[in-house]
Amino acid sequence: MKRVMGAALCALLAGGVAFTAHAETKLTIATVNNGDMIRMQKLTDDFTSKNPDISLEWVTLEENTLRQRVTTDIATKGGQYDIMTIGTYEVPIWAEKGWLAPLDNLGDDYDVDDLMPAIRSAVSKDDTLYAAPFYGESSMMMYRKDLFDKAGITIDGRLTWDKTLEIAEKLHDPDNGVYGICLRGKAGWGENMALVTTMGNAYGARLFDEEWKPTFDGPEWKAALDMYTNILGNYGPPGATSNGFNENLSLFNSGKCGMWIDATVAASFVTNPKESKVADQVAFTEAPCAVTCTGANWLWAWNLGIPMGSQKVDAAQKFISWATSKAYLELVASKEGWANVPPGTRMSLYENPKYLDAAPFADETLLAIDSADPINSTLKPKPYVGVQFAAIPEFQGIGTTVGQQFSAALAGQMTVEQALSAAQASTDRTMRKAGYY
User: Fold this and answer.
1) Half-sphere exposure in the Cβ direction for 315 (13 Å, CA)
2) DSSP assignments along 71-112, one per residue
3) Which of these, 246, 249, 143, 138, lies nearest to 195 by C-alpha position?
4) Across the strands, what pairs with 58?
5) Which of 163, 192, 221, 328 has an alpha carbon 20 to 30 Å from 115's alpha carbon atom?
């Protein structure tokens, strides 16, 4: 009898151990160190309280580092991460390669049809989501109304880059800690290249011609890079080559930027009096044009995806559904106010009077997102999809290299002509090696 009871007890204990192991599914989530993602981490008690069998481990990284880590991990099937924060550049390429699991079980109340068409299309393949958008963005200008008024500057219609240069010169007052303009100078295909490529578009440039040959040796790119190095080099903050999104956000919020052209998602932070010293003095307008407005503002979304082959797909989809749902927007609104919910992904948000009343930037954000067209984003025909990038596997390396060359031109380490020549040569080598021509 004792032996029978002992065997039964052992079986019960063994079953208990198995149950405990099954009950504790740990999700490792790689994400970018942007404000909306930091806020999400602080709110995840709401998720874990509803899903006590799932625990979360965060790996929060600077933008360039995140891209390198997740790309290496998914390409080598490293398995370090259960959920990855990835952009609209990676999703279609990785889905085509079979690297991402389809998101086909987000729940009956997820409402996929509420996702903005441009954003949904960018993260879908054959009408199936391969990543869920956490927030969407375009780019626009944020500026200090008080400084504009003091200088007697009014905005009548969409600015050109030439007019923006004139304004930057008038606002530039470094002796009093105010710089005419803040722009991305940090090298990276998703850092300075995100901005400079839209400037190139505005000047009539494109990354590749219809034969996939790079065009950095053309006059359009010369005009764009001349403007970039001139306006930021002469009327921007010192050390601009170290400044990406977060660094410029800090500068703007501390009152040091007369203008800042960057992601529309910054709007909730620069108007938040808890974070910005100039919250009550911020206004918004469209990103500048030049010879055209086509492609002058980018289109992007940060999304949550699951690597193919993951053993935790069900748990990962539960988390992704929670983080990108309508209910999550309500949660953020209840804790932080409607102005601070992640923007740019759901159409219903821009029909919500509570949001529209709380977010003075809502109309400009929607206008910018709606006007960004990844297919028709250049004045001349192009063979690639993407506004501020080309959706081909080679672009990540190309953009990083060219971004370093443009950053060197901004720092005065080479001339604009030398930077463009180097960009043309390095990109030509890459495209030839890849067999494009």
Assistant:
1) 21
2) HHHHHTT----SEEEEETTHHHHHHHTT-B-----S-TTS-G
3) 138
4) 29
5) 192
d(CA 229, CA 408): 10
Contact assessment for residue 178 and residue 216, using Cβ atoms and an 8 Å cutoff: no
pTM of the model: 0.87
DSSP state of 288: P
Average pLDDT over residues 249-272: 97
Q: Where are the beta strands (DSSP E) in 182-281?
A: 259-263
Instruction: Round to whole Å and give the CA distance between 319 and 207.
Output: 37
Taking the C-alpha atoms of residue 344 and residue 302, their distance in angstroms, rounded to an integer, is: 10
β-pairing verdict for 132-137 and 139-144: unpaired
Q: Could you tell me the end-to-end alpha-carbon distance of the chain, in angstroms, rounded to an integer?
A: 81
One-letter identity of residue 302: W
Q: Name all domains of the chain by residue range, CATH numbers in brackets.
A: 25-137+300-358 (3.40.190.10), 139-298+374-433 (3.40.190.10)
Which residues neighbour 421 within 8 Å (Cβ) at sequence distance 6 or greater? 216, 217
Predicted confidence (pLDDT) at residue 205 exceeds the cutoff of 80 = yes
Determine the average pLDDT of the residues in 374-381: 95
Among candidate residues 215, 159, 153, the one with its CA nearest the CA of residue 383: 215
Rounded CA-CA distance 225/220 in Å is 9
Q: How many CA atoms lie within 13 A of 340 on its CB side?
A: 20
DSSP 8-class letter at 349: G
H or E stretch covering 420:
helix 416-433
Q: Which of 17, 18, 28, 27 is nearest to 51 (CA)?
A: 27
Q: Per-residue pLDDT averaged across 275-290, rounded?
A: 97
Helix, strand and coil in the chain, % to nearest 5: 50, 15, 35
Q: Distance between CA atoms of 201 and 278, rounded to whole angstroms? A: 31
Query: What DSSP element (H or E) covers 203?
Result: none
| Secondary structure element (H or E) that encloses residue 132, with its range | strand 132-137
